[in-house]
Amino acid sequence: MALHIWDHFWDLRVKECPCDVHFCDWLDENNVSDKAIFHFGTGGHHVLGLHNVEKDRKNAILGITASPGEIRTYETMIVENPELGWGYKAYFGDIYQLDKRLLPMFDIVTLFHVGEFRTEANDAYGALTDYEMVKLLVGQTKPGGTVAFYAGSYAYDIAKVQHDKMVEEGLLTPKGQYKTLPLFERTTKPV
User: H or E stretch including 108?
Assistant: First the structure.
């Protein structure tokens, strides 16, 4: 048994997967700064972290990737540009192994890749289900905070089931859509 990893490197392909760029646009249009953000799927481009530095947003971003190549790129990037490391931390691991005791409360959570990575390989070591992982991260979102999904994902049908359940359970309220990103507001209901 081994950790289920993403043995690929995702460079910036905006036409194929614009979610990170659309999220950066949303941050700009809403003048979002000084917020705590959790980001599922850093990509080898790490555009969210770079955007944070370039636009002087001063957000604190914790990104997760299961790609060894993407984490190596992050390591190189922060060695060459230490300023990036102040507001952007990339974590290597399986998002389905998150433990809420190790997570702060977030103002914004991106769950762009729900359903794309979870397989029976995660079951071998008792990983969380999509529902459990999404509920954990919704629970780590401050009331009034934003949870964003990506409608262009090839697994959006799985993600939609999860966010619809969170709405049914009274944990999220639909907040509209920004470009390809369905947005939800975290309610005050305890998880």
Answer: strand 106-110
